[in-house]
Amino acid sequence: MPAPAHTATTRPGLFGPDNLPYGLFSTADEPGARRIGVRFGDAVLDAGAAARAFRSPHARLLTAPDLNPLLAAGRPVWRAVRAALRDWLGSPGHRATVAPLLLPLDTVTLHLPFRVADYVDFYASEHHATNVGRILRPDAAALTPNWKHLPIGYHGRAGTVVVSGTPVVRPRGQGRPGTGSDRPAFGPTRRLDIEAEVGFVVGTPSEPGRPVPQTAFRDHVFGVCLLNDWSARDIQAWEYVPLGPFLGKSFATSVSPWITPLDALDAARVAPPERDHPLLPYLDDEGLEPGGLDLRLTVRINGHPVSEPPFATMYWTAAQQLAHLTVNGARLRTGDLFASGTVSGPEPGQRGSLLELTWGGRDPLTLPDGTSRAFLEDGDEVTISAWAPGPSAGSRIGLGEVTGRVAPAH
Amino acid sequence: MPAPAHTATTRPGLFGPDNLPYGLFSTADEPGARRIGVRFGDAVLDAGAAARAFRSPHARLLTAPDLNPLLAAGRPVWRAVRAALRDWLGSPGHRATVAPLLLPLDTVTLHLPFRVADYVDFYASEHHATNVGRILRPDAAALTPNWKHLPIGYHGRAGTVVVSGTPVVRPRGQGRPGTGSDRPAFGPTRRLDIEAEVGFVVGTPSEPGRPVPQTAFRDHVFGVCLLNDWSARDIQAWEYVPLGPFLGKSFATSVSPWITPLDALDAARVAPPERDHPLLPYLDDEGLEPGGLDLRLTVRINGHPVSEPPFATMYWTAAQQLAHLTVNGARLRTGDLFASGTVSGPEPGQRGSLLELTWGGRDPLTLPDGTSRAFLEDGDEVTISAWAPGPSAGSRIGLGEVTGRVAPAH
Q1: What is the β-pairing status of strands A337-339 and A119-122?
Q2: Chain A residues with CB inside 8 Å of B247's CB?
Q3: A149, B30, B310, B391 - which has most CB atoms within 10 Å?
């Protein structure tokens, strides 16, 4: 492909022509108008304006007020639009047309890029599930008997998925009764936590009653974002038996503003870890395209790196999750979002939650500013960022970041 | 209020002028056009056409392609529209205008009347939770320690909420490994069940971070429907520890086509059962409007009544559920649907699931046609209907029915 047009505002780096993630932005002079943008370096291409300028057959999709029409259009259209973007941004002959449509990133406001249909959260890291089992259920086996046979998941609240930067108000709720009491505790959570995750965004819907096999993963899944599954551990611990997490999670789930197309992550594909239990045919991925992704996450608290979770260590792949999610016939809708579950690697510095990093609060983290954290304090800002290997030697694909600051309980 | 206009096609009965539930219909000559209808006797009033004929200020809401704009309009508008409908249907002077807008019920097709935002399912019957605990966890206390302190709930799949009449395809999935095996079973569920429930439809959204108190229940909740939370017990039993029900529920949830406004159920309000544990202030309903509803459900299999669950016996009220759902700051959206959980009364003939009616399959039901059922067979049709006391002595408000037939696994 041609070399990209470097302008004063574009230093591709993590966001070069091999990446081209999609988002939704508005500008200060038209705050009510939401426009589809494509990140290029430190700039945002006004994709709708570009589509009109180049008389794209896909201008209707790119001038929509969110990504949903593009998501619904299906993989052949996703590929055609991506090829057009690479042409518009990469051909020297287009430079004069494109330059005025590239807005500096720091002049725009980013919004939740798509309307979330259903939100599902999985639990796909063996290291995370093992750590959590040991911390919360020390008298039982770390992994439940089903864990190696199916990707465990549950539905979360789609209506509280928010874009990166949205403040996270500390939730109130019930916790376990204190020793000697039979009345539950109540108040702002004292164990506010994060979960560093990767989210997958469904574009193409599926038919009710028809499972989606792993081989159809790329036909249905448009792209990838970063996700912080904020968790109130004291609320969760009291409520979750027998029907699972509810208010301990449903107050907020933050996602990164940029959706990286799957096609940008071909060079990041890796084999998942060796499986030590045989899998049922619908989950077996022997001989299929490698389902893992080599995404390198970093978690920062108030700017200080506290963990580097490696997504390549996830036991269950996104294609397996999609196959499981639909094996009972549940249909997919455009805008469905499913997340990996907390990404934790085998090393202590690779854990994706404070619950694990501080071992249930027992071993607080000391930050370089001299403060320590068992769980999050009001005013703390948590940022999860990630990159993946790109197609040329040493190149990187940026997934951007998802950030949020804790606001005091109302 | 004036007497209703009785025409050849209107025999109010359960659907008289004190009921007036809303639905969405299409006709054979315009199958693609979805119109808001109001049930009146055995007829459906084309509400949009009536609004235009009477130059209603709410014609925009009533000519929408679903109920969401009306739901979002808020309680003062709900009341004004209801008053107008009673006038249009009840004033002899309007008879000539209204008669051609009343379509026989059996000539229209009914559709899912609103776009479901988030779907939450509670677990609010003490009798149900106790039965399930005894059947599934015979070695543990029937109720978990949290049960009397909070209404337990979880998020379900909004994208598989379907309207009454939609066939329910038997789901496939994993079940527990058989004795002596360490490989899960896989195939069409052998324990397909129902759960007879009542659903509450949210109209007015709430602000993120702001709990909705019980006293604001009527400002946010528009009305009531019947709901069948189809359940695959073998799938559910294998998957649900530790994160709750997932594929055992997500294949289908059926709702009745008619949404009965809360205002139609004033005469059905009753005090909930005595609470034997003190409640936190946000759940305490001492001195508030009675939060229970005297809805009499009937469950039929292939036309044979098998149970009569009394909704008045539910331990947790819908207002408490709403307060709990939002106490952590989770916002409400128009179209949010929350369901009561299985309605089971204290008597064996009042249980709302086959799991309970057959005690885990141990005591199959014998139907009058001579066949017996532990769980559902292909071709079985399950219908849940309900009525409530109306405002005048002996009058009844019909909630219609939710029905579905089991189709074989694909």
Answers
A1: parallel
A2: 324-325, 327-328, 330
A3: A149
Contacting residues for A220 by C-beta, under 8 A, at least 6 apart: A202, A203, A204, A205, A206, A212, A322, A332
Residues B61 and B146 reside in one and the same domain: no
The ipTM estimated for the assembled molecules is: 0.96
Q: Which residues pair with A313 in a beta bridge?
A: none
> Do residues A63 and A197 both lie within one domain?
no
Closest CA–CA distance from residue A7 to any residue of chain B (Å): 41
Whether omega for the bond prior to residue A242 falls within 30 degrees of 0, making it cis, is yes
Tokens 């159809």 locate to: A216
Asked if B60 and B99 sit in the same domain, the reply is yes
Tokens representing residue A222 in the block: 């448009």
Phi first, then psi: what are they for B83, rounded to 5°?
-60, -40
Is the backbone peptide bond immediately before B242 cis, with ω within 30 degrees of 0? Answer: yes
> Can you say whether the dihedral through the CA atoms of A313, A314, A316, A317 is positive or negative?
negative
pLDDT digits (tens, 9 = 90+) for A299-325: 999 999 999 999 999 999 999 999 999
Q: Are A198 and A136 in contact (CB under 8 A)?
A: no
Residue B124 sits in the same domain as residue B105: no
Check if the beta carbon of residue B291 is closer than 8 Å to that of residue B272.
yes
Partner-chain contact A329 B171, CB within 8 Å = yes
pLDDT (tens digit per residue) in B9-28: 334 589 999 999 999 999 99
| Contact (CB<8Å) A246/B154 | yes
- Test B330 with A117 for CB contact under 8 angstroms: no
